[in-house]
Amino acid sequence: MPSIKRLQHLQQVLADNGLDAAALIPGPGFFYLTGAVHHVMERPIVLFVPREGRPAIVIPDLEADFFASKGFDADHFRWADADGYEGAFAGALAHLELLDGRIGIEGQNLRFFEAEAIRRNAPDAALTDAQDLISSIRLCKEPEEIEALRRAIHISEQALENTVTWLRAGMTEREVASYLIDQMSELGGQGLSFEPLVLGGDNSSRPHGKIRDDVPLKAGDSLIFDFGTVIDGYPADITRTFFIEEAGEPERAMYATVLHANTVGRETARPGLACGDLDEFVTQTLLDAGYGEFILHRTGHGLGLDVHEGPWITRGNEAPLEPGMVFTIEPGLYKPDLLGIRIEDNVVITADGLESLTSFPRELRIIG
User: Is the whole-model pTM more than 0.70?
Assistant: First the structure.
């Protein structure tokens, strides 16, 4: 990386969809194409990829040498703090003949002031949200991407085992989360996929709850871990649910239902199956068991340079699964203010089925 093949893929997508260029700022798509990581701050960095020919980048002087060191072939339109960036935008857009072109932007990434800089310097150009089109080139992972995910998952799973072996009732969610983070770092993780969720008891009923530092874990609490480390830019995203010291029969029944739904997902996914159909099969398992009122989210999401990206495993998505797609299968049930249970695996579609990249045991486990 960078890869001519990846650039050509994006240019073909642009041509197929009637776009003259794409505009990307630093982030997953930018890194995928260029191999460069820049912090997104007040100084704009915008890469313009035309549907034919050489890209151009608007970049501040203090970032230009680092970008050039990555070997991505692009014309540089540099700007200095003293002069501002208007001239660089004007130069790049004129050079690529985009003054009246149709430019696809990453609608979830490119910021308002960057879009306005494009509009001021190409007032006759049309900006359109091409988030899905631009990110579509990352849907099917290359072998080295899957290998990075495997490594991130392996480290994350070992860190989880170390953590649940160590923890005891009476500890707080914050204490446990801190230990988990330390374990991932000591085992070779290169950062956090996101701030880990360690949610116990009533807090586990909130899928994206806030970690608490003032409520000790107690016997009978469910305890959700949703976390992962990163390797070479690729994040693990794993969820497992445990119980502290004991679990009652209603909780065991609820857990068994979530586990069954997870199993249905892993055993059903295959090339050609629509993403929405996979969600339907998994969700129907929860509904058939009588837990419909406790369903709060879809079955899963794609996993790659973004923790959440396509393919979206949700009802209504008719896109077919294809070999190389990596995504999560994470059914969950949440009883308000009582408990939540979620089991999340990271999987990849193969030529004839599915491989689970995660291998941490899924069976109900009592800890603490």
Answer: yes
